[in-house]
Amino acid sequence: MSTKVPKVTFNNGYEMPIIGLGTYARKAEPGQYRQAVEWGLETGYRHIDTASVYKNEQEVGEAIEKKIRDGLITREDIFVTNKLWNDRHAENDVIPALKESLEQMKLDYFDLYLIHWPVSVNAKGEDTAIDYIETWKGMEKAVKLGLVKSIGVSNFNEEQLERLLRNAHIKPVVNQVEINPTFTQHQLVNFCKGKSIVPVAYTPLGLISEARPEFIGKDVIKTDPKLGEIAEKYGKTRAQIALRYLTQRGIPVIPKSFSKSRIEENFNIFDFELSKEEINIVDSYNINHRCVPGKVFENCTYYAF
Ligand SMILES: NC(=O)c1ccc[n+]([C@@H]2O[C@H](COP(=O)([O-])OP(=O)(O)OC[C@H]3O[C@@H](n4cnc5c(N)ncnc54)[C@H](OP(=O)(O)O)[C@@H]3O)[C@@H](O)[C@H]2O)c1
Fold it and tell me: Which residues are annotated as site, described as Lowers pKa of active site Tyr (predicted)?
């Protein structure tokens, strides 16, 4: 595919493709992550999102290595994001954790490294209440050592971002949070943009894809005829309309799929434009519903939601 993918520019001057391939799965067969990333790179994705907690770094790294070896891409052509897990928040744990991830993926640097959640826990999952300001000092060291180009956060609220900005020497470039048509997050998005922090949408398909029983009844977006009409008008799917809606709001998206056709479908969103009215229709599905509330962390000191 020869699609030209728009990029966003960070407050430090680096750029990131507005669509990336997500790689989180609750369950995967051996080789499934590797295959998905290979299909993604073949399709034209040049931005891959992973995290140490996804336990897929080795396979994702192997897919990247293969496509570099095959001559499809160079390391410089792609943008790789990884994330520090919550049990490595002590300032002196950041660099060792990062180096382990680089080694797993056989890479020399990440384009972007995120604090995955503001909360910190021990190996048993108990709150250790390490202040994310301490963690950030370790993240800043990573930039100085040349192990990462940019650093950012994920799952932070406004107050936490404000506090981080007051204490940081290096500003975070992104806040990766859940954003989708049933969780539109206008306030946090505007706040981030006002601080020159790029809001990145995880779980961008939201209830369009989710089939967990707790969501039944909330997922009218899957059947509502108005969205069906918009999709039909452009010859697209509901999922593509959701991703286009987000990117037209200037929000990068990182949809995940293990299916070749859906990996391609999700990438194929740059040849049409939604009107203002259509954007408003998609906005009207907002029910402030979080698919990823991080409930296991809700008793932690730095829980954000
Ligand atoms: N920072 C964080 O705390 C955080 C939290 C959650 C996610 N993330 C990142 O964000 C990425 C995306 O989020 P996500 O995986 O939760 O949700 P998502 O990308 O919105 O949805 C993924 C689900 O939708 C299905 N799907 C994919 N394309 C589809 C399409 N075109 N039509 C219908 N269904 C489709 C996938 O199934 P198939 O695989 O069968 O296609 C999968 O079950 C993750 O993979 C991860 O990299 C980060």
Answer: 83
Q: Is residue 114 part of a domain?
A: yes
303 within a domain of the structure (yes/no) = no
Give the pLDDT confidence of 87-144 residue by residue, as tens digits.
999 999 999 999 999 999 999 999 999 999 999 999 899 999 999 999 999 999 999 9
Mutate to test the pocket of ligand 1, among 113, 175, 247, 257 (most ligand atoms within 8 A of CB): 257
List the alpha helices (DSSP H) in 195-302.
Answer: 225-234, 238-248, 260-267, 276-283
Q: Is 179 near ligand 1, meaning CB less than 6 Å away?
A: no
Tokens describing residue 201: 């949408």
Mean pLDDT, all residues of the chain: 96
**Ligand 1 neighbour 19 (Cβ under 6 A):** no
47 is in an annotated binding site: no
How many angstroms does the Cα of residue 137 sit away from the middle of ligand 1? 31
Tell me the residue range of the domain where 145 lies. Answer: 14-297
Is residue 8 in some structural domain?
A: no
Q: Give domain status of residue 1, yes or no.
A: no
pLDDT of residue 219: 84
- Contact between 136 and 115 under an 8 Å Cβ cutoff? The reply is yes
Convert 115-137 to b/e letters by CB count within 10 Å (16 or more is b): bbbbbbbeeeeebeebbbebbbe
Q: From atom 14 of ligand 1, which residue's Cα is the shortest distance away?
A: 203
CA distances from 167 to 136, 158, 272, 302 (A): 9, 14, 42, 16
* Nearest Cα residue to atom 27 of ligand 1: 257
Centre of ligand 1 to C-alpha 91, Å, is 31
Q: How many domains does the chain have?
A: 1
Residue 156 in this model has a pLDDT that exceeds 80? yes
> Does 266 contact ligand 1 (Cβ within 6 A)?
yes
Length of the chain: 305
Can you give the CATH number for the domain in which 75 is found?
3.20.20.100
Going by pLDDT thresholds of 50, 70 and 90, the confidence category of residue 4 is: confident
24 is known as an active-site residue: no
